[in-house]
Every structure is written in structure tokens, then in C-alpha cells.
Amino acid sequence: MAKINQETQGGWVEETEVFNVELNANERAAFRSSPEAFLKDLLEREGRKVNGIAIDARLLEGDGEDDFACPRTPKLLHIAGGLLNSNYAYICPTPI
Fold first, then answer.
1. Angle at which helices 35-45 and 25-33 cross, to 10°
2. Phi and psi of 2, rounded to 5°?
3. Which is nearest to 50 in space by CA: 26, 11, 77?
4. Which of 7, 24, 34, 38 is the most buried (most CB within 10 A)?
């Protein structure tokens, strides 16, 4: 059976930042055609270092160029500091 074990050694994540990312229809189409490259380019143009990007699969679905299959505004999470420094996750926050 699968198990989830919390990492007990410190230093993996020191700080997180949360961002809203506003994309127009053309930008959403560009994102869908190459999601990781699109976000990496966007972040690097903003002067940010990118060590890794994880993307919620629901943000790759939706109605053409107009919308994401996400009930809320997508969020970009940034791990700032620690062993996972400069890793990002573009997620669809799901209501609890």
C-alpha cells in the first residue's frame, strides 16, 4: 500500500510565495502548446531563476483558448529558499 512520509530533515523549503498569473486567450494558447517552456520564459523575463516547474494537469484542459478547466483562478507557487529553491508549481486551487 502506498505511504506518504513527511520529510524529517529540515531545509527543503524555507519560504513560499504565491502569485496570480493573468493570461489572455493568445497566451493561454501558447501556454497549452508548450506549458513548461512558456512559464520558464515568462519567469526568466521577470528576472527569476527557474530550477523546475510542475503544472497541474487541469490547466492543460478546458474549452479551447478561452478557459482553463479550473473552478478558481490558477496560482503560481514559488519555493524561495532551501533545497528546493526556485522551483515553481502552477496549480488549480480546489475548494475544500
1. 120
2. -65, 145
3. 77
4. 38
pLDDT tens figures, 83-95: 778 899 999 888 7
What is the C-alpha separation between 79 and 17, in angstroms, rounded?
7
Residue with cell 479551447: 64
CB neighbours of 4 closer than 8 A, spacing ≥ 6? none
Global confidence as pTM: 0.80
What does the alpha-carbon distance between residue 64 and residue 26 come to, in Å, rounded to a whole number? 11
pLDDT at 81: 75
User: What's the confidence (pLDDT) of residue 18?
Assistant: 92
Q: Where are the alpha helices (DSSP H) in 1-96?
A: 25-33, 35-45
Q: How far apart are CA 80 and CA 40, in angstroms?
A: 16
User: Which of 80, 23, 3, 46 shows the shortest CA–CA distance to 89?
Assistant: 80
